[in-house]
Amino acid sequence: MNFQKICVIGLGYIGLPTASTFSMQGVNVLGVDVNPHIIETLNRGEIHIHEPGLREAVANAVQTGNFKAAAKPAEADAFIIAVPTPFQENQFGEYNGIQYKLADMRAVISAAESILPVLRKGNLIVLESTSPPRTTMDLVAPILERTGLKAGSDFFLCYSPERVLPGQILRELIENARVIGGVTTESAQAGADLYSIFVKGQIVQTDATTAEMVKLMENTYRDVNIAIANEFSRLADKFGVDVWEAISIANLHPRVKILSPGPGVGGHCISVDPWFFVESAPELTPLIYNSRQVNDGQPQFVAELVTRALGGLQGKKIAALGLAYKPDVDDLRESPANEVVHLLQKQGAQIKAWEPFKPDAKLPGITMSPTFEDAVKDADAILLLVKHTEFSNLIPAELAELTKARIAIDTVNSWDMAQWQSAGFQLVRLGVGK
Fold it and tell me: Strand locations in 44-86, DSSP E?
């Protein structure tokens, strides 16, 4: 197929990089978003999210006229839906006495419905939003078929999940393998034609439900493996072992690769996607469910570690370093660091948080410091929650001159014990019971 104009619905962490990448290949792209501020910002050639290289890509796309943002879709050859699929607030499913989270598909439904007035025979529609299995067939296709056109014969319909790493999105969009799941083989081929415009990695064609499951499997696999690492950190704490030393030794085995524990699992992928399996088949997913329980419970374990280190939390002042869900990004969605802060505050601690990648973030119930120095100056303890490079590179002797705190708590294995002790700090580390 030949694609002259593409419409990308949803201009967030995936939609905007995807739109700009198509634009860089000379394709005319209309980006659609429900947020007027985002539309205005992008049409000025500026961006609203942090991602290396994205600002330059968007500015160039706007300047060349290949990209424009708007509030509604217009006629196009292909439509890409890249909207969020968060959890439903205060709504849960239940099976045999256990509760599980439910996907909020309202944005996908709204995006699909917005295409109806401009859908034409021969168009391609691609759902990229991470979704429960059979969403493409059972939710999106019936909405689009309200036009009287038939999915797979009158128009092409695919599911193609994003599989990129924040901080490297623009590179990985191009270089990573791409999965294209069509409702028919012809739809899969149309999707492959579209993404071959910029994808240099392998393009794998399959059916839509398999592609949906592949995406969920990838992140669920990682979630389960992180859960066992987090359980190991709790066991090491109980048995007087250094979990980091134990993991490094265990990983010398040629068929063992234990991941790193931490304060929990966050972001809009690994902490979310497993629940879509549980929601779709709660009777078949006890391992996935229990792994989610372990990882969702890790912030509480960290809060207990901090409580022990400080001999109680009432009135204690703590500088919390990092609120992003992973190192060196500005994405705070589903971050376990935020949950740790809330738990500590419930027990009487006074928290000042410093997030260098989003210092102006507005998070309910969390006090954001304008500078690193402001966060640490009156603190009784320094709590490292995210392994940002600038935190790993802190020189404890210099920090000692900025704060009266002499207790440091490392939840991500970033600081050297001897170095911090020589600077006068008591260093407490997650998963170290020695």
Answer: 67-70, 78-81
